[in-house]
């Protein structure tokens, strides 16, 4: 190969080029390079002939490519193509491929020519004349557009032009117009740092372009793309190049600034900081109009935008770009520029009425501080500085909490940075306000910012002398109501502990710290433990001394000492030292000195925590078991007189799974059976759970469950006696069960007869039994949460006895909850939870249930629904009072008593609703969907009715009561919406339409009732819960019509059902909202359903969301829109003209619109609209209607008329003409 090339090189230039293009390009490159660099001599004729031959060969090849390109643009036939066009289409594709095959060899030749040309241009001995080579290079450059499909050739030519420019060769300006866009485009497409470097290296070439010319648009677009390219923003040279672009043209500068502005709302922090750096570089480099545009067009707009931004996030993003200048304020001219831009607007904005503007302006001032004119006199600078401090002090007491938060953090930041140069009187004034006012501020965020600001201020040692005096004023914040404030103060104390000459106990008294350690949340208690470890369990003293100090802590504050031991291992205490401490604690508990009950609780609780931490290391298990012998455990239980102490022992035993505990069953069961009031006592719940763990660890769960069931049976028998509720039949398995250890041990305590005549009818005894049964119900529900205990319970032989007893107690608790205060929801909750788990236990592998399990769930559903309907029916018919008075059991009671009973009723209904939704979601009750929908609807009606009655009765709810009510309302809505979701998913054709329609209307009624009777705050919170369910609500609204394809399927004719249709309450509210937009809602006569004027702002936002979703799908819009139109028709029949006008305004202007194209696909709505229009037209002419009513009807007619004329009237006219 080399020989052929060498011989051709000696013949002629044309022969050499002809031979070179016949060889594979990649493999021949090195050979060609060697021959050109070494064989060609200065005296060779090739010096003059090769450039000319290259130019001719390149021109010839380019002509061939042009001819091929021109042949693709043949004229198309005038007549439309026949069906055989598909075959001709394939032929065209084949022709295109054929032409591409012809083009490929020509492109490969050009690659070789371009390579040889480059070797000649950059020959090591510069043998070739640049002027001779320029025509060939020019030919390649001018035809670059032909090579777009060949990236290799395109890159080869662009590289040649780039090197020509870098070499400052003759005619370099003529090789830029086509190559530069290629190089720039490649950097944006390939996204390689090397390409960005190459663009930056030839940046001066861009100055040759006229950026005011229209033909430059493509290049300008490429340059603007660089502004949003992550690669250009990440690399140093990329940012420099973007900054350089500002120098090219005033118009380009404007467009670059506009592009950067458009990215601010969405830009990440790094991106915005890069923009700040870019604009600063550009500002330094440019002059004249470009500089003016940056200063007065871009930066001035940013300063104003940072102040008047619509959100705090947007203001923050803008300030990040401005920081590119603020951080360079020492650069000449920057300080003057900042003052020139900010001074006119910042001080004015700090005193405006809008709190958001004040907050944004304060943020900007803090970033700019100190804002000063470098050219001003000292007196002017001092006056301006004093003005800034004055405004800062004023904003510390601003009426807006968000402004105060920024002011206190900013004040501490300024003091930290400029303490040495700020006058002492100014420091005193600011810091006094911070400690005297900010620490007792009503806003949690302000108090938190105060603590964080002081922590930051401590970073300046100059402040320590002053803070040493003032810090005790912060001490009360350790007992703040907000946990975040307490945690921040604990961090402050930890910081003080590391600063010389500061003592944390002078800020917060040690007894207060003990109190916080004992009672506060784990995260705060751990911080306090870390604070106290150097004093009460130091690692630098002997183990004996460390243990002695810890014992001192436990004796001084037993609860605090126990919490200290809980977190000691996490804060670095060695397990070996803790093991020694554990032994000492056990020894002190058993000592002859007999500590008091409180100290015993502390010692055992501390030992329990230590045992938990030590047991994580298996190497200590043997030592722990040796320390906890059977004799010691028995003695410890005899010493542990309180439930808390016994709970700690249970934790120790369950942690170590000790075997020697055979005699401790009675003590452990004492904890479990003493469960009166358990459901409301969190501490007691923790104690019972400890006992459960021990029972499980010892294998006594069956015995414990038997005892619990006996308590339930006792309470069930009491319900039978007191309320006449029938006792269920006991399952045979429970009667044949062998006497267990538990039944023999406590039979003397629990033995009783289930016969009515032998039952103790004393009311106090029943109340006690019922209270214990509530605690047992809580335990059963809690035990079902754990997989291990759940499996053991569901496998018990007396499970059905528990189920039967809970069924009786639940019935009594539900039916009589409006009569008695002591009845509780937990039996119902345990009853439903147990039913679900029993139903799921024996599910077959294919997911279906056997007949017995189906019966369990069916029985529970039938039972609860029957009870619910009895209660709701009695409430609706107002018969409760009479029936209760007949029994002598009812006392009307105070309004507080009624509230308690009603609250229990709502909670019970919510529990049942949750059970229904869970069963439906798991497809355990497919036959009950209609019943479940109806029950949920009646439940929501009951809630909304009582909300209205309570509002009318003006019951005084405490804030805590309101929160409890709202939780129930939120749960009721969520479960109702979830039920709708499940029903809509599982029902394909046989959708329970009436049930779904009724339920969704009651859900909307609940939303408007909450806003009407509880206020906007609760409604806004409820709307946040509603938002995820809006699509389901919309589908349910249209469920009656979604399967209708045509308007003649029994839609809305003059049927009796529609004639007597009762509008849901929320339709009236929706109509009112629409009317308020038509005119000021003064004292217009409204429906009785809406009694007081309300804005219903929260509901209005929900309606706006619904409108947006409805517009996205015409089929759903058609089905849902018919609902509103049918409601309007019903309102027309009842002569409620306010409602018809409001609903039609909503449909015609908010949801659909009056344009022809928007109604074209809404067949069902058009059919309904035609009927409404004719009836409105007739009603408007009725002489009995008042002038005001006729005006409303005319307004409604005007809304319908454009659509009626465009569709219905024309359609009827055409049909008549055809007939």
Automatic annotation (TrEMBL):
SUPFAM superfamilies from the entry?
A: ARM repeat
Fetch the InterPro entries from UniProt.
Answer: ARM-like, ARM-type_fold, Condensin2_G2
Q: Which parts of this chain are annotated as the region Disordered? A: 72-102
| Composition bias, Basic and acidic residues | 91-102
Pfam families registered for this protein in UniProt: Condensin2nSMC (PF12422)
| Official protein name in the record | Condensin-2 complex subunit G2
According to its UniProt entry, this protein's organism is: Rehmannia glutinosa
């Amino acid at each position: 190969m080399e020989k052929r090339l060498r011989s051709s090189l000696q013949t002629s230039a044309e022969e050499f080029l002809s031979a070179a293009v016949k060889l594979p390009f990649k493999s021949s490159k090195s050979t060609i390079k060697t021959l050109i660099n070494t064989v060609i001599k200065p005296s060779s004729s090739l010096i003059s002939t090769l450039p000319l031959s290259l130019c001719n060969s390149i021109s010839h090849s380019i002509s061939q490519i042009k001819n091929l390109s021109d042949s693709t643009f043949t004229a198309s036939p005038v007549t439309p193509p026949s069906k055989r066009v598909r075959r001709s289409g394939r032929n065209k594709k084949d022709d295109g491929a054929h032409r591409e095959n012809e083009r490929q060899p020509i492109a490969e030749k050009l690659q070789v020519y371009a390579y040889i040309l480059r070797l000649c241009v950059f020959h090591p001995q510069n043998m070739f004349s640049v002027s001779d080579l320029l025509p060939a290079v020019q030919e390649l450059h001018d035809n670059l557009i032909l090579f777009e499909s060949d990236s290799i050739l395109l890159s080869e030519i662009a590289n040649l032009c780039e090197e020509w420019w870098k070499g400052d060769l003759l005619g370099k300006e003529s090789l830029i117009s086509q190559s530069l866009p290629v190089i720039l485009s490649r950097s944006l497409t390939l996204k390689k740092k090397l390409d960005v470097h190459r663009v930056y290296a030839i940046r001066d070439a861009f100055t040759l372009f006229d950026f005011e010319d229209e033909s430059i648009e493509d290049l300008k677009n490429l340059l603007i793309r660089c502004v949003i390219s992550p690669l250009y923003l990440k690399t140093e040279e990329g940012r420099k190049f973007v900054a350089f672009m500002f120098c090219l043209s005033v118009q380009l500068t404007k467009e670059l600034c506009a592009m950067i502005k458009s990215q601010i709302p969405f830009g990440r922090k790094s991106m915005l900081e890069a923009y700040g750096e870019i604009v600063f570089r550009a500002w330094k480099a440019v002059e004249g109009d470009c500089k003016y545009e940056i200063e007065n067009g871009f930066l001035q707009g940013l300063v104003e935008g940072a102040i008047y931004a619509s959100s705090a996030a947007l203001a923050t993003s803008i300030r990040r770009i401005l920081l590119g200048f603020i951080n360079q304020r020492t650069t000449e001219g920057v300080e003057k520029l900042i003052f020139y831009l900010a001074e006119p607007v910042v001080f004015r904005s700090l005193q405006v009425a809008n709190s958001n503007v004040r907050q944004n302006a304060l943020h900007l001032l803090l970033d700019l501080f100190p804002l000063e004119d470098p050219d001003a006199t000292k007196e002017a600078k001092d006056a301006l500085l004093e003005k800034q401090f004055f405004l800062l002090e004023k904003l510390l007491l601003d009426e807006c909490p968000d402004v105060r938060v920024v002011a206190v953090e900013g004040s501490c930041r300024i003091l930290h940075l400029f303490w040495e140069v700020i006058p002492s009187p100014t420091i005193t004034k600011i810091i006094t306000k911070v400690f005297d006012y900010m620490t007792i501020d009503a806003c949690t965020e302000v108090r938190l910012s105060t603590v964080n600001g002081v922590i930051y201020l401590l970073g300046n040692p100059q402040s320590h002398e002053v803070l040493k005096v003032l810090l005790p004023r912060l001490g009360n914040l350790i007992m703040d109501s907000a946990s975040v404030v307490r945690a921040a103060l604990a961090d402050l104390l930890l910081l003080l502990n590391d600063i010389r000459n500061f003592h944390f106990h002078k800020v917060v008294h040690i007894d207060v710290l003990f109190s916080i350690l004992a009672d506060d949340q784990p995260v705060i208690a751990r911080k306090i433990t870390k604070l106290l470890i150097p004093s009460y369990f130091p690692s630098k003293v002997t183990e004996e001394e460390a243990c002695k100090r810890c014992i001192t802590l436990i004796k001084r504050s037993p609860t605090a000492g126990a919490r200290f031991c809980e977190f000691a291992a996490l804060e670095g205490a060695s397990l070996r030292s803790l093991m020694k401490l554990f032994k000492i604690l056990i020894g002190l508990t058993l000592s002859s000195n007999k500590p008091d009950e409180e100290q015993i609780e502390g010692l055992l609780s501390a030992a329990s925590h230590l045992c938990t931490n030590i047991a994580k290391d298996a190497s200590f298990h043997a030592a722990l078991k040796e320390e906890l012998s059977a004799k010691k455990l028995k003695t410890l239980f005899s010493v542990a007189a309180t439930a808390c102490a016994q709970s700690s022992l249970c934790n120790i035993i369950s942690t170590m799974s000790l075997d020697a505990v055979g005699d401790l069953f009675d003590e452990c069961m004492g904890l479990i059976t003493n469960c009166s009031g358990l459901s409301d006592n969190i501490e007691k719940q923790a104690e019972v759970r400890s006992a459960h763990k021990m029972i499980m660890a010892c294998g006594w769960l069956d015995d414990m469950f038997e005892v619990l069931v006996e308590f339930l049976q006792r309470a069930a028998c009491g319900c039978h006696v007191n309320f006449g509720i029938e006792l269920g039949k006991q399952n045979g398995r429970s009667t044949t069960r062998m006497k267990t250890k538990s039944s023999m041990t406590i039979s003397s305590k629990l033995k009783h007869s289930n016969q009515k005549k032998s039952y103790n009818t004393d009311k106090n005894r029943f109340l006690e039994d019922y209270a214990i049964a509530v605690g047992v119900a809580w335990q059963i529900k809690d035990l079902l949460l754990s997989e291990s205990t759940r499996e053991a319970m569901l496998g018990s032989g007396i499970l059905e006895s528990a189920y039967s007893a809970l069924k009786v107690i639940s019935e009594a608790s539900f039916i009589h909850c409006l009569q008695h205060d002591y009845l509780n929801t937990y039996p119902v909750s345990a009853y439903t939870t147990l039913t679900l788990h029993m139903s799921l236990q024996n599910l077959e592998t294919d997911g279906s249930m056997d007949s017995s399990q189906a019966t369990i769930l069916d029985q529970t559903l039938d039972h609860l629904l029957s009870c619910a309907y009895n209660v709701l029916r009695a409430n609706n018919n107002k018969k409760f009072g009479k029936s209760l008075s007949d029994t002598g059991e009812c006392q009307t009671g105070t309004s507080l008593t009624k509230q308690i009973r009603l609250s229990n009723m709502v909670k019970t209904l919510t529990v049942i609703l949750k059970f229904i939704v869970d069963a439906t979601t798991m497809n355990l009750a497919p036959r009950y969907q209609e019943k479940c929908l109806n029950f949920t609807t009646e439940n929501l009606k009951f809630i909304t009715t009582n909300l209205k009655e309570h509002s009318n009765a003006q019951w005084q709810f405490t804030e805590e009561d309101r929160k409890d009510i709202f939780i129930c309302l939120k749960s009721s809505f969520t479960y109702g919406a979830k039920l709708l979701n499940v029903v809509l998913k599982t029902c394909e054709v046989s959708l329970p339409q009436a049930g779904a329609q009724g339920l969704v209307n009651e859900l909307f009624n609940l939303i408007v009732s909450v806003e009407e009777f509880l206020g906007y705050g609760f409604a806004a919170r409820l709307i946040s819960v509603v938002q995820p369910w809006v699509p389901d609500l919309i589908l349910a609204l249209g469920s009656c019509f979604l399967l209708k394809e045509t308007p003649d399927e029994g839609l809305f004719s003059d049927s009796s059902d529609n004639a007597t249709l009762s509008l849901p309450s929320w339709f009236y509210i929706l109509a009112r909202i629409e009317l308020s937009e038509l005119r000021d809602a003064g004292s217009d006569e409204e429906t009785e359903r809406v009694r007081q004027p309300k804005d219903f702002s929260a509901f209005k936002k929900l309606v706006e969301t619904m409108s947006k979703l409805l517009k996205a799908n015409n089929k759903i819009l058609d089905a849902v829109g018919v609902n509103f139109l049918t409601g309007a028709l019903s309102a027309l029949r009842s002569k409620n003209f306010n409602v018809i006008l409001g609903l039609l305004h909503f449909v015609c202007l908010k949801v659909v619109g009056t344009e022809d194209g928007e109604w074209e696909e809404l067949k069902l709505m058009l059919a309904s609209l035609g009927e409404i229009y004719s009836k409105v037209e007739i009603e408007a002419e009725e002489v009995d209607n008042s002038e005001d009513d006729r005006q409303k009807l005319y307004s409604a007619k005007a809304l319908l008329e454009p659509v009626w004329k465009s569709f219905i009237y024309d359609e009827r006219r055409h049909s008549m003409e055809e007939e």
